[in-house]
């Protein structure tokens, strides 16, 4: 037994000093244990209240930026940047006819480009700010991070309420602040899933689905506008409703973090504990001596530079570009398909947002699949398999949905639009739900905010490519088809990530008694 490997390191090659260094801080262990015990003994209704409240926050305030299709429709009706079309009368655009339609709404390529730039800037700043707010949460706790997001969101909603045709540049500021203040609502609420030892991935999926469905809030603003309620009143109401985020920040959520609730270590659980009795002939005393090596916690730097994380970043970057491009070009695309008929553009815009309301259900389905895979792989002796193998099916399904969407948009038909919207809803739910559940499952809980922020910001850098793609889309002949074929090829490339994870879990199948985070800590052998 003296030469038996634990955590990939021969026992005989490690000194007592090295063993002590690998042990987690005792005071930190006691603190986490006390908090976890308090969570397990608290009233069950409280954790369900926190989960429901978190879902409502994500549903009402999380992803308003993704309802851009409805908001840009309102902006065009109000004449935001319409002055760019005042000297245009030619049909030089490949997508939008620069003319005044029967309802008096002016639209042209220059206006579309300016509004598309506002969307690009907003989503880019959202991604850049994510690791900053994640770092604030990691260093200063949940409460401080949420105070910052509250300030940004209220600024964005008030600016959006009071921008006018004489100050159209406020679209950039308002949308950016709404985006910056929206995503952290999900980041700070996902830790609520740590309260659920079983079904945590389903909770993560539900939160991400609510974040997706929050785009429908802009649909409500659009419908209210068409029925005589101004955009100003709608956004003032949204600002007032944000008081519920303030309430949960100071009453429901802790000042710091919610640690994971781990089941009894005597059982084989989904958190990745060592299988009991690795070898019936082994000495139990030796096991009790070696097991603490499993609790080695990798540094934040190791997690950030691990190949499993970088591969995950690449996967989300490619898929998010497909999603951002679809959302950002929805309005000019609908104008192109419907020949600039406003009633049809309004109809299909509403249809796209109504289908996004189904994101709550599709995200539940995504979380259910992830949890099902976790239970299916729960009996495997390798920690690497139990940690990573459950993600292979959700990752692959997400890439396949992106491929399907990329194929459907190659058909410029109004009848296909309904199928596009349904596939988009499934795709977005699986993309963000799987991305978050993967981090929540694989990495330490207190690293989630920073790692999720890094994931979003790096993928968002590639998301900046959507604006050059929009310019390419306007280039005749057949600009839209060329761009969509390019994105189709990228979606095939995204399959590299699930294939890579599957191959490496098979390689680590024989490593039974290893560190809980061996695939992160051993950087030379990271995926």
Q: TL;DR?
A:
The protein is mainly alpha-helical.
Could you please describe the fold and organization of this structure?
The protein has 527 residues and is mainly alpha-helical. The chain has one domain (39-262, 294-525): MFS general substrate transporter like domains (Growth Hormone, Chain: A, Up-down Bundle), CATH 1.20.1250.20. The chain has 25 helices and four strands. The protein has helices at 16-22, 26-41, 44-62, 68-78, 109-140, 142-162, 170-189, 200-213, 216-226, 231-241, 243-252, 284-290, 300-305, 307-328, 330-337, 342-356, 359-376, 383-388, 392-408, 417-442, 448-463, 466-473, 479-493, 496-507, 518-521; strands spanning 5-6, 9-10, 99-100, 106-107. The strands form two sheets. It has a two-stranded antiparallel ribbon with strand order 1-2. Helix 3 (44-62) packs antiparallel against helix 11 (243-252), helix 5 packs antiparallel against helix 6 (142-162) and helix 22 (466-473) runs antiparallel to helix 23. The longest helix has 32 residues, at 109-140. Mean pLDDT is 75; it is low at 1-26, 28-41, 89-103, 263-294 and 521-527.
List keywords for this structure.
two-stranded antiparallel sheet; disordered N terminus; 25 helices; mainly alpha; disordered C terminus; 527 residues; Growth Hormone, Chain: A
The CATH superfamily turns out to be: MFS general substrate transporter like domains
Report the strand count: 4
Radius of gyration from the CA trace?
Answer: 25 Å
Q: What's the domain count?
A: 1
Compressed to H and E, one letter per element, the order equals EEHHHHEEHHHHHHHHHHHHHHHHHHHHH
Query: Overall 3D geometry?
Result: globular
Overall structural class, as computed from helix and strand content, comes to: mainly alpha
């Amino acid at each position: 037994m003296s030469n038996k490997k634990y955590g990939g390191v021969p026992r005989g090659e490690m000194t007592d000093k090295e063993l002590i260094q690998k042990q987690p801080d005792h005071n930190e262990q006691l603190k986490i244990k006390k908090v976890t015990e308090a969570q397990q003994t608290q009233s069950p209704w409280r954790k369900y209240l926190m989960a429901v409240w978190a879902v409502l926050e994500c549903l009402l305030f999380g992803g308003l930026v993704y309802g851009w299709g409805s908001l840009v429709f309102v902006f065009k009706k109000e004449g935001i940047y319409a002055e760019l079309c005042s000297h245009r009368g030619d049909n030089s655009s490949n997508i939008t006819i620069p003319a005044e339609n029967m309802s008096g709404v002016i639209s042209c390529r220059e206006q579309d480009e300016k509004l598309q730039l506002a969307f690009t800037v907003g989503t880019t700043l959202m991604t850049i700010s994510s690791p900053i707010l994640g770092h604030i949460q990691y260093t200063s706790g949940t409460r401080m991070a949420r105070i910052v997001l509250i300030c940004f969101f209220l600024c964005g909603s008030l600016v959006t309420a009071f921008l006018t045709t004489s100050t159209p540049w406020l679209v950039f500021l308002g949308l950016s602040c709404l985006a910056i203040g929206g995503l952290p609502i999900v980041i700070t609420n996902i830790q609520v899933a740590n309260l659920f030892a079983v079904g945590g991935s389903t909770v993560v999926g539900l939160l991400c689905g609510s974040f997706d469905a929050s785009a429908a809030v802009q649909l409500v603003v659009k419908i209210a506008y068409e029925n005589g309620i101004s955009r100003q009143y709608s956004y003032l109401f949204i600002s007032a409703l944000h008081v519920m985020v303030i309430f949960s920040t100071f009453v429901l959520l802790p000042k710091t973090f919610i640690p994971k609730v781990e089941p009894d270590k005597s059982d084989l659980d989904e958190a990745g504990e060592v299988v009991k009795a690795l070898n019936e002939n082994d000495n139990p005393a030796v096991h009790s001596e070696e097991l603490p090596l499993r609790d080695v916690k990798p540094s934040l730097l190791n997690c950030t530079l691990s190949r499993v994380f970088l591969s995950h970043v690449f996967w989300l970057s490619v898929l998010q570009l497909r999603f951002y491009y679809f959302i950002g070009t929805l309005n000019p695309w609908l104008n192109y398909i419907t020949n600039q008929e406003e009633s049809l553009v309004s109809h299909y815009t509403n249809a796209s947002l109504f289908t996004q309301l189904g994101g709550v259900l599709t995200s539940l389905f995504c979380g259910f699949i992830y949890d099902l895979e976790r239970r299916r792989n729960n009996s495997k002796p390798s920690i690497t398999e139990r940690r990573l193998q459950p993600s292979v099916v959700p990752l692959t399904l997400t890439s396949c949905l992106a491929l399907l969407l990329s194929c459907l948009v190659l058909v410029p038909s109004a009848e296909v639009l309904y199928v596009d919207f349904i596939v988009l809803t499934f795709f977005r739910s699986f993309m963000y739900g799987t991305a978050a559940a993967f981090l929540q499952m694989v990495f330490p809980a207190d690293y989630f905010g920073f790692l999720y922020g890094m994931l979003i910001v790096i993928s968002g850098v590639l998301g900046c490519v959507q604006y050059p793609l929009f310019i390419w889309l306007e280039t005749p002949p057949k600009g839209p088809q060329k761009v969509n074929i390019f994105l189709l090829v990228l979606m095939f490339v995204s399959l590299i990530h699930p294939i890579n994870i599957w191959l490496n879990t098979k390689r680590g199948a024989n490593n039974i008694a290893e560190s809980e985070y061996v695939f992160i800590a051993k950087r030379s052998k990271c995926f």
